[in-house]
Amino acid sequence: MQNFNRKRQRARRKSLYDRRAYYSLFNHRLINFHLTNSTLTKPNTIKRLTVGGITFSIRAADVSFLQPVPEKNYTEFESEVIFASGPFDIDVLIKTATGGNLPNKNLHLAYTSDSCWSLYRTENGYVIQLQPVGLDKPMWEAETNADFSEVIVQVHIPQPRGKHSLEHFYPFRYPLDQILLIYYLGMRKGILIHSAGVTIGEKGYILPGISGAGKSTISSAFLKNDTFQVINDDRMVIRHQNDKYQAYGTPWPGDAGIAINSKKELNGILFLNKATENRIEEISPQKAFEKLLPVASIPWHDKEIVLNLFEFCEQMVRSVPAYNLYFTPSPDLNDLILEAVG
């Protein structure tokens, strides 16, 4: 009889554990995937996005705003929705705007981009608005404090059209995440550069270039050699940490679609130049500084950040060797680079 009771107790415990596992899985799916017309709210639910060692803590009363971004390039940079707080650098709260229009503020236009977003100054910080062509009001408005560590995003939900509704709307993605990171880094010894990034062993290298310079082309060539690991083929974050310059991958790739969440100490800067033959030459810090500015993401309208980034770039090129890399995709390209900097 005692043996029978023990077996029955074990069976009950197993049944209870199975139910808990089921409910845990069920709740996890609810958190990570929006159910159409869901009213589920979890005020302490957050999602994390980490780029360049900077962590965004993203909160929203409506968890539909916390869905994973559909582009695969974000996969390594997003973490699952969790129910705990912890260290973070930028606190983001996403809310639905009330009424037909976003609130009016005393805004002073600082910058308008070709990508339909604008930046305004306020008394206490900044406001960023995204208003695609054809819309009579912004899709979202992000209000920040003075140092970009706190952000409130108010979303104006587009009217549903067919299958397009709230469940397909991802407010915290490019360009908002990139804009916030550029300004945040600009105040804290960091910068975003239009550059491919590659590691050779424990050494990191960036290959800056304007659009069409060949960042994706040379990244694709590196993929054919196991000695090289490509981190990104279009944008890299550089930060000065513990007296060293660190190169970080980002979730914003180029045509090759390479976006790896990795970092390595920066050991060299290779400026890309398309040519008919492969050669590499070291250049002076002054020349490197001049070539770096056109490919650096610098908010030219903000004098304080411009001065910060000028100082950052000047110190970086004095600390890290820089080269002109003249290249054409050919079998000897990888050997040339390894011989020069590897």
Kindly report how far apart the N and C termini lie. Answer: 74 Å
Question: So what's the overall shape?
Answer: globular
Rounded to an integer in angstroms, the radius of gyration calculated over CA atoms is 24 Å
If helices are DSSP runs of H or I spanning 4 or more residues, what is the number of helices?
6
Number of DSSP strand runs:
17
Structural class: alpha+beta
Return residue spans where pLDDT drops below 50 for at least 5 consecutive residues: 6-43, 161-168
What are the secondary-structure elements, in order, as H or E? HEEEEEEEEEHEEHEEEEEHHEH
CATH class of the largest domain, named: Alpha Beta
Question: What's the overall average pLDDT, rounded?
Answer: 84
Structurally, how many domains make up the residues?
2
Could you tell me the strand content as a percent range? Answer: 25-35%
The biggest sheet, with number of strands, parallel, antiparallel or mixed sense and barrel status, is: 9 strands, mixed
> Spatial order of the strands in the main sheet?
3-1-2-4-9-8-7-6-5
CATH architecture verdict of the largest domain: 3-Layer(aba) Sandwich
CATH topology of the largest domain: Rossmann fold
Instruction: Determine the fraction of residues in helical runs and give it as a percent range.
Output: 10-25%
Quick synopsis:
It contains six helices and 17 strands. It has 342 residues and is α+β, with helices and mostly antiparallel strands. It has two domains: 139 residues, no CATH class; 153 residues, Rossmann fold, CATH 3.40.50.
